[in-house]
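ENCODED BACKBONE
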Amino acid sequence: MLFKQKLLSKIPIEKRAFPFSGYVYSAVIINLISLLFVLFVQAFLPPQVPLFYGLPQGEEQLFSPPGLILPAVFSFLAILINYSLINYTKGDFLKKILAAACLATAILSAITTTKIAFLVGQF
């Protein structure tokens, strides 16, 4: 009987979902839609698009159209980092903040990508 109790105690109890888990899933979906959007509109974009607005005006700002994937990729990396931090933190408030940051990052990268595409695209 003692062996059975020890064996049952090692089986993990069902983990409860963290708060605002839908935000993280929504952020991943937004990033996937943004990636598909870039792949779809590449035919309508010029050979170089302005991507790096923080750099001085000129050639330094320009990048090829597949480079519009970069905001979504960096957003996805931020989501992965935040998700791993969510799994290691214990406070619900911090989990909520990290989940909201995932969604905000995805939305802002999608807005950036669509604004650039509609700014220079020829639809």
Observations:
- The longest strand covers residues 49-50.
- The radius of gyration is 21 Å.
